[in-house]
Predict the structure.
Amino acid sequence: MRQPCLTSRALSRRSVVSLGVCAACALGSSPAAAAGHCDVMLLTCMDYRLTGDIVRYMDGRGLGGDYDHVVLAGAALGAQTRRRPAWRPTFWQHLDAAVSLHQIKKVMVLDHRDCGAYRLFLGERAVDTPEKEHAAHVAELRRLRQQINARRRGLEVELGLMALDGSVETIV
């Protein structure tokens, strides 16, 4: 029987911690959980405004309680930014852990609109119109997908951009 990832269940604003990844599973708090299987690793931003929407989105996709959840400010940008050099290896280490521990088959990367990390890391002018903001997210999401595809052939990568109303645009 498949063991779901325990920490992807109902998340409160306080329970989402930056740089988190299915910590109970990955850090061995439960041998049964660590031996479990999830198909997906989800990377999202830490923005507290969207934690409920993220859970609802994943539940709506039929993945409730069955994914590893990595949280980095800026999501795709946070996993690549030179402004926080420790975050890149952290992302890759979490991806390696998800593959090793849970045999994931897919990485879902979910950025969101009105992201403070994008303003912080890229500068206000880079995202000061809806068009520029959209273009910045699309570029960072696609760049991360390329890197995942190069390092982890065989993993499917799905990209999305969440609006503040919880709706998600698929990025191809």
User: Anything to note?
Assistant: The beta strands are 40-44, 67-71, 106-112, 156-162, 168-171. The longest strand covers residues 106-112. The chain has one domain: 6-171.
